[in-house]
Design brief:
single chain; 247 residues; alpha/beta; 2 domains; six-stranded mixed beta sheet; five-stranded antiparallel beta sheet
Length: 247
């Protein structure tokens, strides 16, 4: 059974002759422990899809179902609770607080949710150790590499034990080595830690770490490709699909 799925998800900005259809009756799903990449040309609706899945925006038509709940029917307070406790967000530019240490940045979602500060920091320490930052617990963001900052952001996304992690171009601000490390970590989030992961990316190398790729064009799902684990040709397959999409 899918953890999250959409039914005829549609988002239109504006009205009348100036209306822009960002998403057009999209039906898709993500299963527990599955890593799904969303790809497509600029303006195809990738970011809009992510915002709707995360409850950051409401659809014009259709609905998003997460763990049996329709986001469209929830009050603003209930939607906030879903975002805070069931969904983890990872962004391209990390969004860390500059004056806080790695531990305090990672603990922030729990502290904002009213949890005990000492217990929150202890849990943050445990997650930072899991993502490979045992030696960087007290460092501020400006004392970390870009890849290390993204690891802090992933620990922060996981600290509430969410069912779903949404990653918006998570490697877009990293060099190739750090990008591969973060993509492998997100794969681990799904396979070893049991979270559903959906990431938007433009990079075939990064998408090749996913189980499945959903291709968007002009706001519609135009293709889906399931990848074989540890297939050396996955990057080539993804790149070929993107070229076909652009033609």
């Amino acid at each position: 059974m899918s953890l999250i799925h959409t039914e005829n998800l549609t988002k239109v900005y504006g009205k009348g002759e100036t209306a822009v259809v960002a998403l057009d009756h999209v039906n898709m799903s993500v299963n527990p422990s599955e890593c799904v990449a969303v790809m497509g040309p600029s303006g195809c609706g990738k970011s809009t899809l992510l915002h709707l899945l995360g409850g950051l925006d409401r659809p014009t038509e259709g609905r998003v179902m997460i763990d049996g709940s329709s986001l469209s029917t929830l009050s603003d307070n209930a939607l906030t609770q879903i975002r805070r406790r069931k969904i983890g967000f990872v962004f391209q530019f990390f969004n860390l607080i500059p004056i806080l240490s790695s531990v305090d940045n990672a603990a922030l979602p729990l502290i904002l949710d009213g949890k005990n500060s000492a217990q929150s920091r202890q849990k943050a320490t445990e997650w930072l150790q899991k993502v490979g930052l045992s030696e960087r617990l007290g460092n501020r963001p400006d004392q970390l590499s870009a890849g290390q900052q993204q690891r802090v952001a992933i620990a922060r996304a996981l600290i509430t034990d969410p069912m779903l992690v949404l990653a918006d171009e998570p490697t877009g601000n990293l060099d190739s080595r750090a990008s591969d490390e973060i993509a492998a970590l997100l794969q681990q989030v799904a396979k070893e830690w049991g979270r559903a992961v959906l990431m938007v990316t433009h990079d075939p190398r990064i998408a090749a770490y996913a189980d499945r790729i959903v291709f968007l064009k002009d706001g519609k799902v135009v293709n889906e490709t399931r990848l074989e684990a540890k297939n050396d040709r996955n990057r080539e397959i993804v790149a070929g699909e993107l070229r076909a999409l652009a033609s």
